[in-house]
Amino acid sequence: MSDYCLITANRNYSSWSLRPWMLMRGLGIVFEDRIEPFAQPVNYDAFRSFSPTGQVPALLHEGRTIYDSLGIALYLADRHDAVWPADPDARAWAQCAAAEMHSGFAALRNDCTMNVGVRVTPKPMSDALKANVTRIREVFEQGLARFGGPWLAGSQFSAVDAFFAPVAFRIRTYGLDVGAGQAWVDHILAHPAMRDWEEQALAESWREESHEEELAAAGSIIADYRTA
User: Fold this and answer.
1) Are 153 and 143 in contact (CB under 8 A)?
2) What pLDDT, in 10s, does the model give residues 24-68?
3) pLDDT tens digits for 66-90?
4) Long-range contacts of 177-181 (CB under 8 A, 24+ apart)
5) What one-character-per-residue DSSP string does the chain give?
6) How many CB atoms lie within 10 A of CB 37?
7) With a threshold of 0.85, does the pTM exceed it?
8) Beta-carbon neighbour count of residue 226 at 10 Å?
């Protein structure tokens, strides 16, 4: 048994959950995988039983509760060398890009809600969303060109890839154009852990009303691959 227990929510919806889950799976860090689904529009009270923020993800380890995807990544970096790239330039760039993802891209989050199992023709993009997509394309292309790929900060998977992993699903769902950055999108979507997450998402029977309403507001659903 692992000393780590990672608590996440629905595979289909929870982008925040995917970040540390993908980080740990991508680095081969063994953990107990505990799912607490979004059972209602507001889950704060229920989630407060395991997280002080009333949100997922949360990592339980040695009597500690480590919350927030960035907090979890920082905690793991103190214990696992491969969380960030070894090269100083790549490490600095990866940390900045991950932090930018963690704190920014509000229009992408709001206008392109994560839903792994569907494909959507989006409504006309707002200027804010266009700016977000342009910046994401820039980050992807810069990382690949500067550090040689196939991962964003070089030849090895690291936390920056995990932080943008939910964006890869969003890009596919909404058909967003990220130029040469699509090479990274294709690469991470083919990763066994991402394929596992997707398989679980498609098999989920949960449908949470507010998330489905956000999806309907985002555009027209042209395919739904969810099987449950």
Assistant:
1) yes
2) 999 999 999 999 987 777 876 878 888 888 889 999 999 999 999
3) 999 999 999 999 999 999 999 999 9
4) 177/133, 177/137, 178/133, 178/136, 178/137, 178/140, 178/141, 179/137, 179/140, 179/141, 180/140, 180/141, 180/144, 180/145, 181/136, 181/137, 181/139, 181/140, 181/141, 181/144
5) --SEEEEE--TTT-HHHHHHHHHHHHTT---EEEE----SS--HHHHTTT-TTS-S-EEEETTEEEESHHHHHHHHHTT-GGGS-SSHHHHHHHHHHHHHHHH--HHHHHHS---TTEEEEEPPPPHHHHHHHHHHHHHHHHHHHHH-SSBTTBSS--HHHHHHHHHHHHHHHHT---GGGHHHHHHHHTSHHHHHHHHHHHH-----HHHHHHHHHHEEEEEE----
6) 19
7) yes
8) 16
Q: Phi-psi category of 149—alpha, beta or left, where left has phi over 0 and alpha has psi -120 to 50?
A: left
| Tokens standing for residue 200 | 């679980």
Q: Which two tokens stand for residue 105?
A: 């891209």
Tokens 């607490």 sit on residue:
36
CA distance 167 to 15: 8
Residue carrying structure tokens 């394309």: 137
- Candidates 37, 32, 4, 21; CA nearest to 169 is 21
